[in-house]
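Thread: "does anyone have the structure for this chain?"

Original post by V.I.:
We have the sequence but no experimental structure in hand. Need at least a predicted one for the grant figures.
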Amino acid sequence: MTQVATNRRSASALSQAISSTSTWNDDTWRFDLTRPGVTDSSRTIDWAFELPDGSRFTNPIWTELREAVKRFLWSLRTDPPAGKRRLGPGSLISIFNQMRVLVCWMVGEGYDSFNQLDADAAARFMTTLRERPGRKG
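Reply from O.Q.:
Generated one for you, tokens below.
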């Protein structure tokens, strides 16, 4: 019985509408941002970005990690932490761009799940971030 409920929940999440044009399992989420001057890239999450190993984040090997990132982002929209407002699409896209940096680092380091990260991994990631060139060099 528990498995049936889990399967129904999973099927429901997969068909869940993200916007008027995107659903949960689409490779690209396009949000309904209609302000003048909004570009496609500033209203889009593209899950098919390239990883350091040459694969795409939409490849089946990354399903578990991709779903974890999706659930985290969507929880900020639908079930924010106590006392916090739910995030709008622009904020979700911004956080996605930050998460993409972490995901690329994880893949480059051989991680395929967040539960593999520990304090040592976090320290190495922070070192990597400090070593990245900034916008001004």
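V.I.: this helps a lot. Residues 72 and 84 are 15 Å apart (CA to CA).
O.Q.: and The two ends are 57 Å apart (CA to CA).
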